[in-house]
């Protein structure tokens, strides 16, 4: 089991606090980061991934700092961004083998994992297609596969279901819930369906600060004390606590791809 700790993390850019003394522990299961646009959700993911340097604070895995040790982190980390980078001149399989090699996964091991995950995301039939010829939805699914190569202990998901259609999202929910039994998963999404299907715990951010955390059941119980609607959905819980801090949670329509 892997424990990820963010300790007194701050990030300032041109005198503006993007993150402000954020301290939080993440354990196996799915934690959803919620807050208004610009609250610091994606900035926190990028800080955890060592993509954006901290001005102060630390990122630790099982009590050991990974600041300045990206290789130590990346051997245990998978990342899905809203627009995952890809090499358009490579085929789907070639791209995934490239990522696997970057992660230090032996080729024969990578072959088995690539085949397994392409089958799970229904891309086996296009494994030899150039990335440049893939639709947005296909590229997003390839981005999900590259993150899962090497069976990472920590998985960061930033708008992971953008461009996925309904059935693809349901499949994504299923295998993420399954791997989250032993994997620390952190998700940012404007789609309440993603949080409803996946999150065990919510972390609320506002202006770069953590303003509230809690397990979903406990948050539901707390929010229900002042709500007449029952049962409460995750979106009701998010709206309840963000309203208390005069923040609003941005909603977006689902973008569907092939």
Automatic annotation (TrEMBL):
Gene3D superfamilies reported for this sequence: P-loop containing nucleotide triphosphate hydrolases (3.40.50.300)
PROSITE patterns: ABC_TRANSPORTER_1, ABC_TRANSPORTER_2
InterPro entries, per the entry: AAA+_ATPase, ABC_transporter-like_ATP-bd, ABC_transporter-like_CS, ABC_Transporter_VariousFunc, P-loop_NTPase
Span of domain ABC transporter: 4-232
Domain of life: Bacteria
SMART domains: AAA
Pfam families (alphabetical): ABC_tran (PF00005)
One annotated GO molecular function: ATP binding
Sorted UniProt keywords: ATP-binding, Nucleotide-binding, Transport
PANTHER family xrefs: ABC TRANSPORTER ATP-BINDING PROTEIN ALBC-RELATED
Name of the protein: ABC transporter domain-containing protein
Organism the protein comes from: Veronia pacifica
